[in-house]
């Protein structure tokens, strides 16, 4: 008797095959292979399939396209905060609105720096009885005029592009608190490795914040759910939560398989 394969199972197998092919394609690009025809021959697929795959990988920032081929993504360059607040704004606003619902009454929270956490700060204004420990100068200034919120700034060196505080002073302050929820912004996120940042000091302060929280919540729009070339990474505690606008189960199931609680606003 032949086992029947459902359409859902077939679709899942198809997605897994596509993902495996993309990973193999990235490996080839990192070793210097770049021509479409050569990549097609090595992978045993058509040139048109390679072109489609390259277009997808380029769209998510994993590679850089060139005439007749592609190369692995260039070194990561962090955007200025003033530029980031305009990118994927509707997605970030929806993520922030959903994240605000995760804050218990009377909670003490950690609020990270960055554009999506800045959106969350807007949803917090006017709340009563919560304490916000933050490394974001922008969020601290905004929330300071909200009468029902106690605002505490970590201190530390100011990161130029994110306006976030980092270094020994920030680490010292975080080590003196235990917060109910830590909300982290990211430049990239990975289901196993955690959150990616442009510098090790910023990655370290996120790791400390996550370690000093009862619940860690990562706010990441769909464009952040790919490693790209982000260099520094901070591991997260087991059972962390991802709030994202991504809806593709091919992507989200990678996180669920690692024990991540996924909340999709899509």
What does this structure look like?
This is DeoR/GlpR family transcriptional regulator of sugar metabolism. InterPro entries: Carb_Metab_HTH_regulators, DeoR-like_C, DeoR_HTH, NagB/RpiA_transferase-like, Tscrpt_reg_HTH_DeoR_CS, WH-like_DNA-bd_sf, WH_DNA-bd_sf. Residues 18-72 form the HTH deoR-type domain. Keywords: DNA-binding, Transcription, Transcription regulation. With 266 residues, this protein is α/β, with parallel strands linked by helices. The chain folds into two domains: 7-60, Arc Repressor Mutant, subunit A; 81-264, Rossmann fold (3-Layer(aba) Sandwich), CATH 3.40.50.1360. The protein is built from ten helices and 14 strands. The protein has helices at residues 7-30, 36-43, 47-59, 81-84, 89-100, 115-124, 137-143, 168-174, 200-211, 249-256, and strands spanning 63-66, 69-72, 108-111, 130-134, 149-153, 157-158, 165-166, 181-185, 188-190, 194-197, 216-219, 232-234, 241-244, 261-264. The strands form four sheets. It has a seven-stranded parallel β-sheet with strand order 5-4-3-8-11-13-14, with helices on both faces. Strands 9-10-12 form a three-stranded antiparallel β-sheet, covered by helices on one side. A two-stranded antiparallel sheet has the order 1-2. A hairpin with a 6-residue loop joins β6 (157-158) and β7. α6 (115-124) packs parallel to α7. The protein starts with 6 loop residues before the first helix and ends with a strand. Mean pLDDT is 85; it is low at 7-12.
């Amino acid at each position: 008797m032949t086992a029947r394969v459902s359409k859902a199972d077939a679709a899942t197998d198809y997605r897994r095959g596509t993902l495996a092919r993309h990973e193999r394609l990235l490996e080839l690009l990192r070793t210097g292979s770049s021509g479409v025809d050569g990549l097609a021959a090595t992978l045993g697929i058509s040139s048109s399939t390679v072109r489609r795959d390259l277009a997808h990988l380029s769209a998510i920032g994993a590679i850089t396209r060139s005439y007749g081929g592609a190369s692995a993504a260039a070194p990561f360059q962090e955007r200025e905060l003033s530029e980031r607040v305009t990118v994927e704004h509707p997605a970030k606003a929806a993520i922030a609105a959903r994240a605000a619902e995760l804050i218990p009454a009377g909670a003490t929270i950690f609020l990270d720096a960055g554009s999506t956490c800045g959106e969350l700060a807007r949803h917090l204004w006017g709340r009563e009885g919560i304490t916000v420990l933050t490394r974001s100068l922008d969020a601290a200034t905004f929330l300071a005029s909200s009468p029902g919120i106690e605002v505490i700034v970590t201190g530390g060196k100011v990161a130029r592009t994110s306006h976030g505080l980092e270094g020994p002073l920030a680490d010292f302050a975080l080590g003196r608190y235990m917060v109910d929820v830590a909300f982290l912004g990211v430049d990239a996120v990975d289901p196993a490795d955690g959150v990616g940042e442009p510098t090790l000091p910023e990655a370290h302060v996120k790791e400390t914040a996550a370690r000093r929280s009862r619940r860690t919540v990562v706010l990441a729009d769909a464009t952040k759910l790919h490693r790209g070339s982000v260099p520094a990474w901070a591991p997260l505690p087991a059972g962390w939560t991802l709030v994202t606008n991504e809806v593709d189960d091919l992507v989200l199931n990678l996180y669920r398989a690692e024990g991540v609680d996924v909340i999709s606003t899509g």
